[in-house]
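Researcher: Here's a chain I'd like modeled. Treat it as a single chain, no partners, no ligands.
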Amino acid sequence: MVPEPPATLLLDFDGVLCWQLPRTCEHLHREYGVSVAPDDIDEWSWPLPGHDVHVGEVIVELMHERPRWFLGGAEPLPGVREGLEALEAAGYELHIATHRHPDTHDISRAWLERHDLPYDHFVDDVPQNKGEVPGDVLVDDYHGNVANALATGKTGVLFRQPYSEPAACEGAHVVDSWRDLRRLFDV
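Model: Modeled as a single isolated chain. Structure tokens:
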């Protein structure tokens, strides 16, 4: 069961609002000569064949060295605008809670505006443990964040991606799309 409005939903950015892995894969091919599909990256420590680096390290590198290209160029997930609009219309409070580097928050806010995505608040300082962020529900693609939210008494929703592990956040609602998320919240 999910809380009724006016509950506050904490929404992660990458893997929930947008899909960052296509840009990651493009970079891996161009800079490292590694061809991989987004669905093949099934963990953040996925090692690049022939290189002493894993995909999580490359993502951090891209966030710092090419944030406008990497973060600003990500595509919204299908149905995200309609889903956010429906949640907002139902009376939910929408807060963006991302572990993107704080120096990139201007890029993230511009991305939200460019794609006309509604939200009520952008949390500027998200602690490593997202369960500590005030709110009622965490919607995240990383099972560790969802487990932390569940441990603090929040409702956890795991937005399944290839690297997500539902068994690591027992008790969470698991969704595969924005359509599933809308169904869960009955909006």
